[in-house]
Write a structure and sequence with these properties.
The protein has helices at 3-16, 25-39, 56-67, 266-274, and strands at residues 45-48, 51-54, 72-76, 79-83, 99-100, 106-107, 112-113, 118-119, 124-125, 130-131, 136-137, 142-143, 148-149, 154-155, 160-161, 174-175, 180-181, 186-187, 192-193, 198-199, 204-205, 211-213, 218-220, 223-224, 228-236, 250-258. By secondary structure, it is α/β, with parallel strands linked by helices. It has 2 domains: 3-67, Orthogonal Bundle (Tetrahydrodipicolinate-N-succinyltransferase, Chain A, domain 1); 72-274, 3 Solenoid (UDP N-Acetylglucosamine Acyltransferase, domain 1). The strands form 5 sheets. The protein has a 10-stranded mixed beta sheet with strand order 5-8-11-14-17-20-25-26-22-23, with helices on one face. It has a 6-stranded parallel beta sheet with strand order 6-9-12-15-18-21, with no helix packed on it. The protein has a 6-stranded parallel beta sheet with strand order 7-10-13-16-19-24.
Length: 275
C-alpha cells in the first residue's frame, strides 16, 4: 500500500468518524492526491484479473475533496462560478503535444489528460477521469467523473461518457484503447467498450440494454467485446401482447458484428461509423 493510499484511507476513516481538520496535513494530502490523479499516477479503476475493477480508495479520495472543501467563488473566462474545486492547470498541455481549444473547453482539477490529445470546445472532463494518449474529445462531449478513456480513442461530437463515482466499489464507464464512438453516443452506468471497436452514431450503451453479439452468438449486458462494429436496432418486446399496443411494441437493442479490418485508417473508420 502506497503512502498516499494509506493517507487517504486514514483520512476517510476519520472523515466518517467526523474527526477531520481540513487544514494543515489533511489539506496537503488532498492536494497531493489531485496531483497524482492529474499525472496519471493513480486511477479510479484498473484492469486486473481479467476485468476492470474500481480502486475504492481513489474514489474515496475524490469524495473527500468534495466533503472537506468549501464552495468558493472562482472565475473562468471572465465569468464567476461557484465550486469546491478549481479547474485544472492546462498551460503544460502543449509541452506534451496536447491541445485544448478555447471558448468552453473545461477540465476540472483532478482529471488526467495524456499526451497528443485534442480537446475541442465546448467539452467537459470531470474529476477522476483518465483520458489516454492520442485521444480526441470532440465538441460538446462530456467525460464523467472517474470515466476511464483509453489511448487513441475518438469520441464523436456530442458524446456523453458517464462516470460512476458512487458507490465506491463500482467500476466506472471504461472505453478501451482504439475505440471510435460516433456522434451522439451515450455510454453509462459502468459499461465497458472493448478495444478497437467502432460504435455507430447515436448508440446508447448501458447495462439495461442488451448487446446481441452476432460473433459469439450471445446476449451480453454491460459490455461490448473488443473488435466489434456496433449499432442500434429495435427488437420485439413482450409488452407488445398488451391490448394497448396495436401492431406490437419494440425495445432498443445493440447489435454487434465483426470488425473485418482491425487496422482501419481514419478515413475508413469514418465510413464505418456512418454506414
Amino acid at each position: 500500500m502506497s503512502t498516499l493510499e494509506t493517507d487517504i484511507t486514514d483520512l476517510w476513516s476519520r472523515y466518517e468518524a467526523d474527526d477531520v481538520d481540513a487544514d494543515g496535513d489533511d489539506r496537503a494530502t488532498l492536494e497531493a492526491f489531485l496531483d497524482a490523479l492529474e499525472a496519471g499516477e493513480i486511477r479510479a479503476a484498473e484492469y486486473r484479473n481479467g476485468a476492470w475493477e474500481a480502486n475504492e480508495w481513489v474514489k474515496q479520495g475524490i469524495l473527500l475533496n468534495f466533503g472537506l472543501r468549501s464552495t468558493e467563488v472562482r472565475e473562468y473566462g471572465g465569468v464567476a462560478y461557484n465550486d469546491v474545486l478549481p479547474l485544472a492547470e492546462t498551460s503544460e498541455y502543449g509541452d506534451r503535444g496536447s491541445r485544448n481549444t478555447p471558448d468552453g473547453t473545461v477540465v476540472r482539477r483532478g482529471a488526467h489528460v495524456g499526451s497528443d490529445c485534442i480537446l475541442m470546445s465546448p467539452a467537459f472532463v470531470n474529476i477522476g477521469a483518465h483520458v489516454g494518449d492520442g485521444t480526441l474529445v470532440d465538441s460538446c462531449d462530456t467525460v464523467g467523473s472517474c470515466a476511464q478513456i483509453g489511448a487513441d480513442v475518438k469520441l464523436g461530437a456530442n458524446t456523453l461518457i458517464g462516470g460512476v463515482l458512487e458507490p465506491v466499489e463500482s467500476a466506472p464507464v471504461v472505453i478501451e484503447d482504439g475505440v471510435s464512438l460516433g456522434a451522439g453516443c451515450r455510454v453509462t452506468s459502468g459499461f465497458v467498450v472493448g478495444e478497437d471497436s467502432v460504435v455507430g452514431e447515436n448508440t446508447l450503451l448501458t447495462p439495461r440494454i442488451p448487446v446481441y453479439d452476432l460473433v459469439e452468438e450471445d446476449i451480453l449486458y454491460g459490455e461490448l467485446p473488443p473488435e466489434r462494429r456496433a449499432f442500434t436496432r429495435f427488437v420485439e418486446s413482450s409488452i407488445g401482447d398488451h391490448d394497448l399496443f396495436d401492431g406490437g411494441a419494440y425495445k432498443p437493442a445493440v447489435v454487434a458484428t465483426a470488425l473485418e479490418d482491425r487496422t482501419l485508417e481514419a478515413t475508413k473508420r469514418e465510413e464505418v461509423l456512418r454506414s
